[in-house]
Amino acid sequence: MTLQIALALAVFVGAYVLIATEKVPRATVALGAAAAMLLIGATDDHGIFFSESTGIDWNVIFLLLGMMMIVGILRQSGAFEFVAIWAAKRARGRPFVVMVMLILITAVISALLDNVTTVLLVAPVTLLICSRLAVPPAPFLIVEVMASNIGGTATLIGDPPNIIIASRAGLTFTDFVVNVLPIVAVLLVVFVGMAWLLFRKELVYDADRARRVMALNEREAIRDIPLLAKSLGVIALVLAGFVLQSRIHLEPAEVALLGAGLLVILTRLEPRTIFADVEWETLLFFAGLFVMVGGLVNLGIIDRIGRSVAGAVGGNYPAAAVGLLVGSAVISGVIDNIPYVATMAPLVQGLVEAGGHAAQPLWWALTLGADLGGNATAVGASANVVVLGIARRYGHPISFWTFTRYGLLVTGTTIALTIPYLLLRYF
Amino acid sequence: MHASDLETTLPLVDRGTPVLDAARMIAGERLPVLVITDDKGRPAAVISAVDVLGLLIPSYLRDDTSLSGVLDENGSDEVWAEARGHTVGELLDDEGVDVHDLLTVEPDATLVEVATLMAAARASVALVTGGPPRFVTLPALTDAILRLSDRSSGDDA
User: Which of A252, A360, A378, A408 could make an S-S bridge to A400, C-beta 3.0–4.6 Å?
Assistant: First the structure.
């Protein structure tokens, strides 16, 4: 092992430790690690900015940017609040039915938006409904964030790791819908059953409180009808663009940016509003990660590990898929799944290139393991951390262990159900 | 004219003060800010009346203002009822609330000095150091500035 490789590995491990312990802002860590990779000669300016395999993946960055802009504009309309209150009224204020409605709404929204945005949208209206029903909001918040993590697994844009995987593997929006959506639908049905088993005792129906939900006027939540119409129209176009991606020959990032640009022109909102939901820190975090992992690829470290793993796997891809699924779930339950997938993607890419069609399901194993594993602990996904913070601020704290107890149960069940899906469908 | 010439007393609240009592002080005395004391009863921080207003409203409505319209009259009444039991301490702990350190000025600070310090710190109130807690407030300060300005205009004429 050369000194350069030893230094690169030290930078990588150090960055992972710092990201996992959250002692330093994660964007700072990733950018610092990227700078260190540059200083030790593991990458260069061309590698950072122009290499598709070892540099910043602009498709990922600009897809996220475009979607953040679209969401930032859409959330001004009050559409999400309208749907949530409408659903609670359709449930006639029966707490468990309301919970099921919110689970499904959260999962669907999460398939189209990122998970943190989804829970930030759903949490306030959940608190309002729970306050009307006089039921504890903590179970609702817990199932919503888990539904968000499950629902986000279903599409290319639902969870940032999926965007990385799609970009690396050349997978389309439709590939995700065809391969991941079916199992996610099954998992959601099972999850609803688990929610009933876990929380039914806390969800007591009170006819008087139900009337207070029925008294809510969801139409008042819509703040700007023209804005809502324009936003929904553009989102429909963007989704059509994703689905028809291979026919119109546009990358997902191009579709998202065209949609965001169209919405900016149609709504003529202030730049401050348009960019309000753009998480620049997250985008820089991604950029730093790509450079850091690209350094390892440039030095041949990922290739060496890939060859060792390929040797160990042999041709036994079913076992490899199960191992990758379970291993990804375990690791993603403990550390952020974004750096994990950013590191694993080139590794899996190597395995798939070596194994051909038979190894292709490894991408789905990585996707499902990394995304579903986020439910395992309170720190398994950014959305979990956000929800725990919201719950504390709203005066209904959820402890780490309370969340993790439910999370381990849900993750164990969803992963256990995913194993036969992968084996029966692909092998 | 010096800070000591403008000083006045203000009601003080601590972490345990019920938020409805704090709101009553603001309404009764038309206060733009509330001065909060530390564990030893010394003035330590300042929060704006608007932030106190925010604590009367549930956090979920502050986070998502579009929800405020969906409540009917009965629902709105229940919102005010929910404010009962909240304390000023909760306001201090809320990440969304700006709690400002209390600006201090010397008793012999000139009017220009006090005005400059308060403008720079964007402070509506400043604690005059030494002795029992007394404050220079923004209305008293602007009133004094205007009186001096009017007088100098008269002298010029």
Answer: A378
